[in-house]
Task: structure prediction
Amino acid sequence: MEDKASGVKCVLRYMVIAFLLPFICVVLQNSIKSDIVDFLLYGIQAASPSIAAIVEIKFFEKKRFDDYFNINISKRAIIVPLLVACVTMMFSKIIYAVIVGDSIIISGLSVKRWIVVLWAFIAEEVGWRGFLEPSLRTIIKTSALAIFITGIIWSCWHYHYFIQNGIEIPILLFVVGAVAESFIYSYLLMFTNRNLLSAMTYHFSWNLFLHLFLINPGDNNGSLIPYIVVVIFEIVIVLIMFFITGSKWNIVNKEG
Result:
């Protein structure tokens, strides 16, 4: 019981930091009118989950980082997430093109956009799948519920992007997509023996192909169809994963 209470405090501290830090950055961005400062604060916003995890481990739990983070170079942890993200986005774009009779356009990325996408590779997953989900698994014994809650918290964390009009997707659709993706992340972790590199690669790949295949409504004359198809694909992928893995879905962390 004491371990569970400690785990709850750990998660709450993590969430306070992860949610409060972006809010502070937004306030500063509105106060300091500088493109460079704005860009740096945007980077801190994006990295707040990982910053929160590092602060929690280093200053509160006082544990070694490798007790939480298993990051090993592996072809499987790179290629599989890359393919899953690419196929999901590509087929979604093809379906959209068929429905509206449009051509399939693959966009390029500006230098600034490349920096943002590459930053996503390291900014979030140390916090979400590296720290929060394993911590929730020590509190919640049902793996699916821990994964579901991680997805809900993750989606709610994006509040600061909604405040800044940085996300064009309706909130409910965004939450459904985030929860589905949370299960995909966990499957990739299971498939790679909890190698966090798989989650980092998937996050990077998802953001990359989202832009390359022009999935957002702003790139499709306001149409939500590409994004809706992406979410449907993700739900189908999750159902297939459940069917394939069955009871093996239960992933335990090192302390579990």
Summary: The radius of gyration is 18 Å. The first helix runs from residue 2 to 31. The CA atoms of residues 122 and 200 lie 6 Å apart. The mean pLDDT is 88.
